[in-house]
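Consider this:
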Amino acid sequence: MSKTSTQTSVSRTGLRQNNSRLIIGVDPGLASTGWGVLEFCNEKFRYIAHGCIETKAGSPRGERLFLIYKSFVKILNKYKPMEAAMENLYFGKNISSAMTVSEARGVLLLALISKKIFVHELTPNAIKKGVAGVTKAEKIQIQEMVRFILGLPEIPKPDHAADALGAAICAANLVDLDNAAGR
């Protein structure tokens, strides 16, 4: 049986003064890294911001990774999340794209750990279940649920940002359920 979540070993900074949790979700990629920030308090979500870090395809890979790192650190400094959620690497049919995604994940994890931000690493099925309630949900169903849960007028764009917000929603729900169960 596989785990749905692993947690990187950085201690939590605790709750904010109003007992809320500020969570950043991340959807890593070399060309486009989605991110989304939300607040979770008293079983309610509040949307904060979302976006994408884009890199140019013709640039050297090292420069692209450094741009992702620098841009992400600026986002972390601006929003000051206490925890993060990121999908575990999924090896599908295209191994070469999985390698570049893993490199992007590496620089993102480095940025998070250097800021002492607690990281939830989630399986794709855990995110689907945490957002839509079922592991067989289609991408558009997840995005529509993100829109609904956060009370947004439309699905967040681009897709990577919506996926990042979905990861953050899932992390909030998983930890909230753990707390309710006394774990």
